């Protein structure tokens, strides 16, 4: 079945969102400071601990946000309200500095995950569907193109392919066991895989906040860019998923990859 003109335009817009410059480039454009400067200023204790903090943040976000949202018929997602919440947490985190990361990141990640689920719902996804829950979590693995991108496993479908087996295995296990302690190891597995990729964006965010004179106002700006980035990833992702349900995965992927 051939795509309608409207659906083809939606696919083009989705690719533009998903393959856009990554978070580091957006932060550099916004605040005029190179991310590399922030990397040089990061204490080793912070750099080494970001992976653990990121995984903890995702785990708490799943418990607090993803599995408490309900299905609905919302035609529009509340993107601005979620941006306000993340900006507020970023402002507080910026005021207290890098030492607040372990407190600020779980809060901002939870708000972002609720925003991602809200966008999914607005694109016709059923939040009670296990596949939708996994797809929401999957969004954190999509980073767009980074400043030093070598094109290896960074494209949208390339990342989906990498995650596919683990997500399918986790979904099947959770569908059988339910969200119980027995299923916890499988959820830890998928969270760990996603956290490895999400941690790249978290490190870029923290590096930007490490630049002197960023402060509370800068923390709010960076967090706004942070959630805006993943709202774009979510919008593109769920538009593609909706088109896949309508036209089939193979056709949509072929058309997506053919778009320049």
UniProtKB/TrEMBL annotation:
Highest taxon listed in the record's lineage: Bacteria
Entry-linked InterPro entries: EcsC
Pfam families reported in the protein's UniProt record: EcsC
The protein's name: EcsC family protein
Annotated source species: Shewanella subflava
């Amino acid at each position: 079945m051939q795509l309608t003109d409207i659906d083809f335009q939606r696919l083009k817009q989705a690719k533009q969102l998903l393959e856009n410059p990554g978070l580091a480039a957006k932060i550099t454009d916004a605040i005029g400071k190179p991310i590399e400067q922030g990397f040089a200023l990061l204490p080793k204790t912070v750099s080494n601990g970001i992976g653990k903090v990121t995984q903890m943040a995702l785990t708490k976000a799943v418990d607090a946000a993803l599995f408490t949202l309900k299905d609905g018929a919302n035609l529009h997602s509340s993107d601005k309200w979620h941006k306000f919440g993340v900006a507020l947490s970023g402002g507080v985190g910026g005021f207290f500095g890098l030492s607040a990361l372990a407190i600020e990141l779980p809060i901002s990640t939870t708000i972002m995950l609720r925003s991602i689920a809200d966008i999914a719902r607005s694109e016709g996804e059923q939040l009670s569907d296990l596949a939708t829950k996994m797809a929401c979590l999957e969004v954190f693995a999509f980073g767009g193109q980074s400043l030093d991108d070598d094109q290896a496993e960074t494209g949208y479908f390339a990342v989906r392919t990498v995650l596919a087996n683990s997500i399918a295995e986790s979904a099947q296990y959770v569908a059988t066991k339910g969200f119980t302690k027995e299923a916890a190891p499988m959820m830890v597995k998928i969270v760990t895989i996603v956290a490895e990729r999400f941690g790249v964006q978290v490190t870029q965010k923290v590096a930007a906040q490490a630049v002197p004179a960023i402060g509370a106002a800068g923390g709010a700006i960076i967090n706004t860019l942070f959630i805006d980035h993943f709202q774009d990833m979510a919008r593109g992702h769920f538009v593609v998923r909706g088109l896949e349900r309508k036209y089939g995965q193979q056709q949509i992927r072929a058309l997506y990859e053919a778009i320049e």
